[in-house]
Write a structure and sequence with these properties.
The structure holds 2 protein chains of 2 kinds.
Chain A (H helix, E strand, L loop, with lengths): L13 H7 L17 E6 L2 E7 L5 E10 L7 H10 L10 H9 L3 E7 L1 E10 L5 H11 L5 H15 L7 H13 L12 H6 L2 H12 L4 E7 L3 H9 L23 E6 L5 E10 L7 H12 L5 H9 L7 E6 L4 E10 L3 H18 L3 H18 L3 H14 L3 H12 L3 H9 L8 E6 L1 H8 L8 E3 H6 L8
Parallel strand pairs in A: 2-6, 7-11, 7-12
Antiparallel strand pairs in A: 1-2, 3-5, 3-6, 4-5, 8-10, 8-11, 9-10
Chain B lengths: L2 H9 L14 E4 L5 E6 L5 E8 L13 H8 L11 H7 L4 E6 L4 E8 L3 H14 L6 H20 L5 H9 L14 H6 L2 H11 L5 E7 L3 H12 L25 E6 L4 E8 L8 H11 L6 H10 L2 E9 L4 E9 L5 H16 L4 H16 L5 H15 L5 H9 L3 H11 L6 E7 L9 E2 L4
Parallel strand pairs in B: 2-6, 7-11, 7-12
Antiparallel strand pairs in B: 1-2, 3-5, 3-6, 4-5, 8-10, 8-11, 9-10
Helix pairs in contact in B: 1-9, 2-5, 4-9, 10-13, 10-16, 12-16
Classes of the chains: A alpha+beta, B alpha+beta.
Chain lengths: 473, 450
Amino acid sequence: MIGLLLPYGITLGTTLAVAASPLPPVAPPVIAPAPDWHTTRPASAVLVHWLPLPDLQRVTLVIHAGHPNTRGPDPDALQVWQEQWGQASTLADRVETHRAARRIDLHTAASAEGGAVRWMADFPSEAWPEAIEALAQLLHQPHFAPRQTRDAARHTWRYLSRQEHVSPLAAAGDAIHHLWYPDSHPRGHRPDPRRLRRLGPSDLEEVHRQAWALRPVQVVIAGPVDPQRDADALHALWQDRSIEHAPRPVWPPAPPRGGILGVHVEEAPLAAVAVRLPAPSISDEDRLALDVAQWALGDHFLSRINANLRERRGWTYGIETQAHTDHEHGHWTVFAEVPVHRAHDAIEEIEREIRAFLREGPTQEELLAHRHQVIASWNHQHQSARVAAASWTRWLQLGFTPEEARDRSHELDRLTPDEVRDRAERWLDPRLGRVVIAGDRDALRAVLDPLDIHLPWYGSIDAALGRLEDATP
Amino acid sequence: MTLPLLWLLGALGFAQPAPSPLAGAEVHLLDNGLPVLVSSLPHTDQTVLMLKVRVGSGDESTDAWGAAHLLEHLMFEGSANVPGDAFDRWLTEAGGDNNAWTTQDETVYHMRFPSGAMERALFLEADRFAHLDGGLTEDNLANQKDVVLQERAEALDGQGGHDLDVLLGLIFPPGHPYHHPILGSQDSVRGLSLPALRTFWRTHYRTRNATLVLVGPQPTSHLAARARAWFGPIVDTGEAPVRAATSTPLTPPNLAHGALADRISGARVYLGWSTVPLGHADEPALELLTYLLDDGPGTPMADQVERKRGLEQGAVLATHGDRGGYLWATLSSPRPRGRPLARQILRLIRSLHLTAPDARALDEARAAWSADYLRGWDQPATHAEALLRCYELFGQPDCRDDALARVQRVTPEDVQRVARTYLTPDRAAQLTVHPRRRRPPRDATPVEVP
């Protein structure tokens, strides 16, 4: 028999062990101070934030330009550009450049969100300044290979026109995004498949030029860096020091009100549900309380919704949640993939858990556990240059200094369960949520019709392109 | 008895550690046969615990497919001293998190937590390792069967979610440890009983069949002492069953070509070959071969296939396990015909049969492999896994120099030789994934996900 053999020679049996309840206590985690950081200004609208982490091996550089709540330059081209810039395929005609990048282990990527763009480079510290020189070439002389550009654009078009496999979860994600953001919203761009099919290298070069001109620019560089030694090489990226004013952010319209719709994914064996609720902006005084609510409801393994749908009922392998917060607004979404005959039940259970939380608030244990998770997360993030740079970029973009971001964990000390409940009640009202059910329409109707639930149904192409005109309240 | 006294007594009477001199990482062999690898990373506040049990789907009998993976799920559902959902709750409230994975050869559990929670983490891991049977219930089993079957269904619902399972079923003949899917089949998972799982656990979850890794900011002496205090008292129940010798088939049984219908409009083609297990002398050359064929511009997959032919998403990958290895290449196309894709893959492989790679290309492949290998050693979780792999391969917890030296010794002729030995057209198993509404290729046998 396998057993914990006690020193006095008795094998600890189950009964004795449970009675002993030998749960070791834990020392509460202590939040680490913010590392020293410095700011330099290579151009009037460019700030570089240096985060020296001398024990790490790699350096991560993030360049964030523009504002997500503005209309970006040519959103269709940006969508393809973000897949292509910095990828090996864009260097297909530049084998030597690619070989250099491979030799120094330089990884690059780009992304776009509304009118904000972001470039990322990641390399070992010994590759400095070669990595910066290679990055400069990618930024100042971007090259998009014709065949790869066309293939990438067509790939995006094929995805949008659903000529490739689409899962109900992906279709639900597309639909909930377009259902939430009207096309008048900076984030609500509806893709234009015809434009995507026509995109060529010159379109990507032009959109890259426009993206590079976006201001203001916040740069975060984390890892074993030394501003005294490294600043000149990095500052040289901004040779053009002319002042360009940032476009004024467009205040987005208020989030839409509740509604539910269906997305047809032919022959899909499972159904996906998505429930999105409004959440406060980062500057709203309710934000911290909502962080607790979202965490307790869905953002960890034993969160209430996951514990219900997975651990108690076995309906899903695991729920997913997405929390979005920016200056102007926020939202929180729960996704679950479930058997078709459980689609409606799953939505009911998600809403039941939310309502129970709004009645009872978090337990003291949930509040404390969340605080410990926040502290652990702060402490862990400086163990990787990539995570540290991503976190710091986000705080700076939201207007926090790293010290202010750190101090938010102390503010959690002052929150009570009742306060969390009262503040959550202002936001997480299921009646204000938007809901999507995606799956095979006939199979889902067989479940929903007997319940007298009749949805407007859209094709998965409509979901991808945002052609969603109505949702049942 | 108070807990500190229990820990103190538990620490007595066990072999003194014999620290390895390598780079600060140490291996301590407990008296019950459990190797404990420890390494100190002073710059971190995070401690990582990793427990590998040498059991995977390849150790299952034909009537117990999916047992190793289902048992992995049950390890989170309670043990003798950890009721119900307390495993996750007690770790989460301390600021920690955890997960696990199962392969054909191993089940690995990992946790990360603030350093002040180390005692609790060790207690939780030791209790479920030694006392899982105290927490196994029919209710938990029924629930986790549902979760596993849903996991399987969700993977099926994603693009290509089970292609590799089907390909391995073609490369390796029935009875080979890698033939059947890790998650099992719907029927096999449904059929697993609590007594059968309990027996499976007792058979494989033994101190001599596991390896424990602890990486954190604490001194290695402290990490080793605490690991010994919690895992040292676990009774040594002897060696796990000896794994049957596996003769890796170099020729699939029927030169298998399977056709799998999926919700796609184009086609995906896979070619796979069985190769060599982890630690085999040819493993480094096979690893470099994948980098030579497919590592961006300047390598044939990008230049001669993706770019010139307008095909998408090519990849060449090698996997090496305890009892075998496989190398596979895949190509997909928006067009529904699979035959041209297979031809392209075979042409790539044939180029290595005809000509050894030039020295410069091999140097680049070595540089890329080395960069991938060394990346992330400064992070506790990556570091812990690297130590585990080193110990398996070289019997020591830090093998960076040895691993790099093995790759340095590979010559262009070695790469050509392994291509000619293992990757020949008549030994390839092929899987063509085609649109549901089109007929499968004439020379292929329709297959389904098990």
